[in-house]
Write a structure and sequence with these properties.
The chain has 326 residues and is mostly helical. The chain contains eleven helices and no strands.
């Protein structure tokens, strides 16, 4: 764990090196096995383009995930430092953010490995790996490695989200200036961005202009709940506290307005008006630490994958028309 911690948080060029290294190693594996740029395709593949699309996905996705893990964790550490600099959190982020139990990481890796093995491989491949050709064996290795890496990345990101969740339980609550809580939202926004990129990469599986639901469904089962959870979890405890504080404040304002209404004096009308204006201002204050720029980016990240899939569908229709001459 110390070596992994060093690579993720302290080694200077990890982000610049790890992605290209993974890319080159996987490319070499698939080139050597004949799965990359091959005219001959294994059973269950209908074309060389379909095989190429899946192989490219198994090359690019792990390379992105390895880079993303380092970049995202370091950005989370900077978000945590901002909370310390704003005097919202007093403890050192190296104590409450960086530290993760080795057994937790091992559990995530095992879950990812099993998910790739049990749900993303054909039973014929899973049950007779030793008798498979090198081309198919490389595909099996690529799929299992991809999902094992997904398990590792999700373990770190869930751990990080939980760290922010716990800090949200103790930071001072201020309804009038929620901009100081922006790191809680930014941390989850990074994960939505990462998952958006991964979902867009899945379009590579339609390289032969065919949409096969089975190629996407298991990725969606993981990606969509993960995106929602990693976005909301870091700021959920803070949101609940802001919401409770807002409810208490509004109840107090209602009481003050009611008390002022009982006094039949001209000054009381002015006081009532001021109290009602203040109450309305607080009522319209969001209990989520999300400003317009974060909301805009979030909406953009959400609509990008459907637009990409829609674009792929239009390309498929266009190719069909060109090839059929209709």
């Amino acid at each position: 764990m110390k070596a992994l911690d060093f690579l993720i948080y302290r080694a200077r060029y990890t982000a610049e090196i790890v992605g290209p290294v993974v890319l080159l190693l996987l490319s070499a594996l698939f080139l050597y096995s004949g799965a990359l740029f091959s005219e001959s395709v294994p059973k269950f593949y209908s074309s060389s383009e379909e095989l190429l699309g899946q192989v490219l996905l198994m090359i690019l996705t792990p390379a992105f995930l390895a880079t993303y893990l380092v970049v995202a964790q370091r950005r989370s550490l900077r978000f945590a430092d901002r909370l310390v600099a704003s005097h919202l959190v007093s403890s050192d982020p190296t104590d409450w953010l960086q530290k993760i139990a080795g057994r937790t990481v091992l559990f995530g890796v095992i879950v990812g490995f099993l998910y790739g093995l049990l749900f993303n491989l054909l039973p014929e491949w899973r049950n007779s790996f030793g008798s498979l050709g090198l081309q198919v064996q490389s595909i099996v290795i690529g799929q299992v490695f991809l999902w094992t890496l997904v398990g590792l990345v999700l373990t770190y990101r869930i751990h990080t989200a939980m760290c922010f969740y716990r800090q949200g339980k103790v930071v001072p609550v201020d309804l009038y200036d929620t901009s100081k809580y922006e790191p809680f939202a930014r941390n989850g926004l990074d994960d939505v961005f990462g998952i958006t990129v991964l979902l867009v990469l899945t379009i590579l599986q339609a390289l032969d202009a065919e949409f096969r639901l089975g190629n996407y469904i298991y990725a969606w089962i993981v990606a969509i709940p993960a995106a929602a959870s990693l976005l909301i979890l870091p700021m959920l405890s803070l949101h609940r506290r802001l919401l409770a504080h807002k409810k208490e404040f509004l109840e107090e304002m209602h009481r003050q307005v009611a008390d002022a209404s009982r006094v039949a004096e001209p000054d009381s009308l002015i006081q009532i008006e001021l109290l009602m204006q203040h109450r309305d201002r607080v009522r319209h204050t969001s209990a989520w630490p999300i400003d317009l720029s974060i909301a805009f980016r979030l909406i953009l990240f959400i609509i990008i994958p459907p637009l990409a899939w829609l674009g792929a569908a239009f390309v498929e229709l266009g190719l069909d028309k060109i090839l059929t001459g209709s």
